Amino acid sequence: MGIYAGDTKFVQSRCTISVVKLENSEPPQIKGQQEELCSSQDVEQLDLNQETDILILTPTYEKNEDLNCQHQKKKTQMKKLSYQLRRHMRIHTGENLFSCKECGRCFTRKLSLHMRIHTGEKPFSCKECGRSFSRVDSLIGHMRIHTGEKPFSCKECGKCFTLSCSLTDHMRIHTGEKPFPCKKCGRSFRRSSKLSVHMRIHTGEKPFTCEVCGRSFSHAKSLTNHMRIHTGEKPFSCEECGRSFSQATSLTNHMRIHTGEKPFSCEECGTIVHYIHCLKGN
């Protein structure tokens, strides 16, 4: 049975959590998965750095702060700590988990947010463009598209991102980490969404269907490219001669006429050609 913290699947095999981090913690209605923006994407494993860091709680206070006030603050923090630790333990014990009657997934928190996946409810709307979201944190992340704010920066190359999950994904470029392996062929991916798309090779699933001719595709991008056959759209233009193409790859191939590039050679006779299909009859 899959156990989820919030909307996030917990797949850790061995738990070493002793204390839950409280510093800079966000309220539960803000904290959570950014499903629309991160392509549900990609946050399948519980982020231990965000949710359950191993850190001893050491609250600090101002010297002139009233002792009674200090005591109340510490008491409040300890209550929060106790709640978070008890909620985390449900992952292991299965106690007081909330089960979805629609899909059977279990959560350590109440199901109201998760149920919006099934009901389609999106109560949080962007005032700029009208796009709606099921979670307020998804709306907050989306608003950065309009404001241009990119608060998450890569320490390796300086590139900035609007979402923390985008930075997490980007960091795997530097580390080479590919934590999502295919159980069929062993190929690994940086993002769970890429693995999901890859799995269609093995399952034969083609969920994207052309409404004009009925042809189906395994990728949304493939359907987009296909639709240009029906619409006649050719958005890729050659800057040298002005000729237009429906596919980016067609423009790339065409440019070899102008550059003189011949990247394909025959292993038998050494003939060099612009296009790989020219080798078939060689």
From TrEMBL:
Domain called C2H2-type: residue spans: 98-123, 124-151, 152-179, 180-207, 208-235, 236-263
Record's keyword annotation contains DNA-binding: yes
Family of this protein: Belongs to the krueppel C2H2-type zinc-finger protein family.
PROSITE patterns given in the database record: ZINC_FINGER_C2H2_1, ZINC_FINGER_C2H2_2
Highest taxon, organism lineage: Eukaryota
Function: May be involved in transcriptional regulation.
Pfam families referenced in this protein's UniProt entry, alphabetically: zf-C2H2
Name of the featured protein: C2H2-type domain-containing protein
Record carries keyword Protein transport: no
UniProt source species: Oryzias latipes
Lineage: Eukaryota, Metazoa, Chordata, Craniata, Vertebrata
Major location (coarse): nucleus
GO CC, one annotated term: nucleus
Keyword set, alphabetical order: DNA-binding, Metal-binding, Nucleus, Repeat, Transcription, Transcription regulation, Zinc, Zinc-finger
Subcellular location, record wording: Nucleus
InterPro entries the UniProt entry points to: ZnF_C2H2-type_TF, Znf_C2H2_sf, Znf_C2H2_type
GO function terms (MF aspect): DNA binding; zinc ion binding
